[in-house]
Each structure stands twice: as structure tokens, then as C-alpha cells.
Amino acid sequence: MCDYSLMHVKSRPASVGDKLRTSNFGTGTRGFAAPEDPTTAVCVLPGTELAFDEGITVYGAAGPSQHRTAIFRQINRQHPHMHHDALELPDGQKLLLTFLCEGQHATVLQLPAQPTNEVEARAQTRAAYAG
């Protein structure tokens, strides 16, 4: 499942090689969708590596980031009614996915390794639905 704000949107898990586009799903948040199916959210696991076609752009920024790669993370997990989906840039900066400008294209480079212990499994578990 994607971030709680997308719980009423049709969704599917991401796969290596998927081409994604940042999209507004009309739920008050943005996320990823496949360009050929813009009504289906593509859910990304924490630790997934993404490559953007251009510098990553967020609303309100003076211009695009110099970075074109990011690792998908979940932040603020202890706060159930907040957005959790974020991108961690190579310099350590974290950007909430919902603040990304629409229409950016990215490719799933790598999914996270399968967890080998309970600590790793918890790190890959998505924040629970809050509702």
C-alpha cells in the first residue's frame, strides 16, 4: 500500500525498470504512476533506488536540484496523520514526495534487498494506515 493519503486509489507495487511519473491523484497528495496508467499509484518500498530524467524539482524551490538520483524513504513514521513518503538525495536531504512537481519522470533502478533479520524487515515495512 502507498502512503495513507492514497488508500482510496488503485495501486500496484513497483518493479525494477518501471518508468514512473510524479502525479497528482486528486487526494491532496502526489505520488508515482506509470505514464501509461496515470490513475494507478505505483507504490515504492523504502530503500528503492530511483533515477530521474532531470534534476528533481519541488514546489516553491528556486530551481531543480542538482541531483538526479534518490533513495525512497519513509519519514515521520511515528506521526500517523502526516505524509511519510520521501526521497533521500545523495547529500542526505530528504524531500517529501507530495511536494515534488508533477510530470517528472523517473526509473526504478533497484529494489531493496530482501531483509535477512527482524531489524531489516521493520526498516522496509511501510507506515501503517492511519484512519
Overview of the structural elements:
This protein has 131 residues and is mainly beta. The chain has one domain (4-124). 5% of the residues lie in helices and 34% in strands. The chain has one helix spanning 118-124; strands at residues 11-13, 19-24, 30-34, 37-43, 49-52, 69-74, 85-88, 94-96, 105-110. A hairpin with a 5-residue loop joins β2 (19-24) and β3 (30-34). The longest helix has 7 residues, at 118-124. The two termini are 14 Å apart.
Helices and strands in order:
Blueprint: E1 11-13, E2 19-24, E3 30-34, E4 37-43, E5 49-52, E6 69-74, E7 85-88, E8 94-96, E9 105-110, H1 118-124
Parallel strand pairs: 1-4
Antiparallel strand pairs: 2-3, 2-9, 3-4, 5-6, 5-9, 6-7, 7-8
